[in-house]
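User: Hi! I'm working on a homework problem where we have to compare a predicted structure to a textbook description. Could you give me the structure for the chain below?
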Amino acid sequence: MKLIELPYAIDALEPVISAQTLSFHHGKHLQTYVDNLNKLIAGTEYETMPLEQIVSKAPAGPLFNNAGQVLNHNMYFTQFSPNPATAPTGRLAAQIEKQWGSVDAFKAEFEAKGVGLFGSGWVWLQSDASGELSIAQYANADNPVAHGFKPLLTFDVWEHAYYLDYQNRRAAQLKELWKIVEWKVIESRYNP
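Assistant: Happy to help. Predicted structure tokens:
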């Protein structure tokens, strides 16, 4: 596994995510998970598996934790853009409106679930095989792949993801992240 390259400049997401936060979160924090994962899979059956397969097959413990965190962070960092499409369209928009009534109602529930997750973890928009959407809270490195769902959108609610920019104001960070979500990426995850 290699550290993913960011699809934007290190300072491109400011002021929502600062260059300092991105430098630590991507360049140091995620790099550590990648390094740990590579050590754990070396010489094992997991060495040649795609990341999602490792996550779905790994037993609980260090292998799952590091693989899960690499997957979670890869999806997190690649869903943002400095000039994003600011609202979902097409099938995804229709499904969100069908299930929540509006995109704003969806965002409100998503933020509430992010704020309400005790401790560290992730809030996800996920879909099942039929295209039904749900919002899920997963602690630590857990994610939709481990539960048979397709991951679409995620906000990191570990404090390291926002503390330099928002201190302990998790809710403020969650509200700001919508400004940089690239809905075209989320739609591509929903529409393979």
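For your comparison, note the following. The chain has eight helices and three strands. The first strand starts at residue 121 and ends at 127. Good luck with the assignment!
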